[in-house]
Amino acid sequence: MPDFFEIINAQRAIRRFKPDPVPQLLIEKLIEYATKAPSGSNKQPWAFVIVTEQDKKNKIAHWYHEGWVAVYESDPSRPRNAVYESALHLANHLHDVPVLIFPCITESNGRVPSFSSGASIYPAAQNLMLAATALGLGSVITTFHRRHENDVKALLGIPEEFTTSCMIPIGWPAEGEHFGGSKRKPVSEVIHYENW
Questions:
Q1: Number of C-alpha atoms within 13 angstroms, CB side, residue 121?
Q2: CATH number corresponding to 14-190
Q3: How confident is the model over 150-172, as pLDDT tens digits?
């Protein structure tokens, strides 16, 4: 296994995947590592829906593409750079991704999940993506499907009290994709001691 800090430096958004299937054992390892994340009051209010069936992926891909067009493609202010091209590829080829994982979250007492609910699911999503990187699998976190949240929930039988927090496509990186090298702002630009 690579060093933990090497994995952090290597993890990046991968949006192009080989069609090769991902073994169920590896998928279950990803979920196991996801569930090691912290959650508020240790309630572990999560569930993970794994989608590999082609018919379901086709429907989700259609809704995802609609979300991409509505949010991303129709915005002329977005630069048409390498990130755009990579995201466009995923929007056009989501149906080819071997595995789609939906981390879902619920709130107790019938409350609707809110922005702060993310504190109890996004650490699990990040654990999952770091574990994927350690295993040589590509991943990316995305939410374009949420414009069709009710359709996705109906298709996948997700209970009413749960919300999909995001979708994480998973697969073996395609030719030309690589780990590491993500451009990030230097720490000196984002850190503030005591005051902004």
A1: 24
A2: 3.40.109.10
A3: 999 999 999 998 999 999 999 99
Tell me, what amino acid is at 171?
G
| Every domain of the chain and the residues it spans | 14-190
Query: In whole angstroms, what is the distance from residue 190 CA to residue 195 CA?
Result: 12
Q: Which residues contact 74 (CB under 8 A, 6 or more apart)?
A: none
Tell me the pTM: 0.93
User: Mean pLDDT across the stretch 51-62?
Assistant: 98
Q: How far is CA 182 from the centre of its chain?
A: 17
Is residue 178 predicted with pLDDT exceeding 80? yes
